Amino acid sequence: MKIIMLGAPGAGKGTQAKRIAEKYSIPHISTGDIFRANIKNGTDLGKKAKEYMDQGLLVPDELTCDLVMDRIQQDDCKNGFVLDGFPRTIPQAEALDGALNKIGQKMDFAVDVDVPDENIVNRMSGRRACLSCGATYHVEFNPTKADGICDACGAQTVLRDDDKPETVQKRLTVYHDQTQPLIDYYKNQGILKSVDGTQPMDSVFDAIVGILGA
Ligand code: AP5
Fold first, then answer.
1. Is residue 88 annotated as a catalytic residue, yes or no?
2. Spatial distance between the Cα atoms of 92 and 132, rounded to a whole number of angstroms
């Protein structure tokens, strides 16, 4: 099963994508996580990506598309994958369709996790991320067991640089301008499914499983 998670920054794409990956035994591919790992390791890609991410802007398509196309051709993607944060522009979606088309495949579902802008800033200021293993928490809705310590790996959790309110506003503007058009793109392909992302996390997951099948 090949799934795309759509939605505004902070809508809960990553939270749900991890659960989908576990339930359906497919890899979770997050471009944001890939960029953050490169930033942490000081790679050239990381240095370039950080310039854009810190401003709330998208990393250019030419730095993003090839790395996803390489990733989805790896062996563990044979039975499908869940894409989280990609595609984010029409050219990225076209590159993905083109790459799959060449091997006679196509995406199965684009799941839009719908959350209004007014809920987003609140969520982001409460998010805490583990930059070591990529786990995500929320101080109110999904807290760590010990304050500031990742449950999964024991590293410190932090407020991401791009989760400061002014950067979140910029990310929302970029989302509406460049990513929201993908909703019509996938509606036209007949694979768009929407879920109400303002519900509690478990209810959102149940709704997604209802769409994907148990
Ligand atoms: P990325 O890491 O993909 O960030 P994003 O899309 O902005 O998404 P987030 O990770 O911020 O949010 P999410 O929807 O995954 O929400 P989460 O589950 O964490 O990208 C970061 C940057 O990298 C981009 O701005 C861009 O610069 C660059 N980039 C990445 N991909 C790119 C691409 N393809 N092209 C170009 N540039 C790219 O949840 C948010 C919080 O809410 C958490 O604290 C969570 O615990 C909580 N929460 C989740 N669900 C619920 C719920 N139902 N109720 C209450 N709280 C909830």
1. yes
2. 27
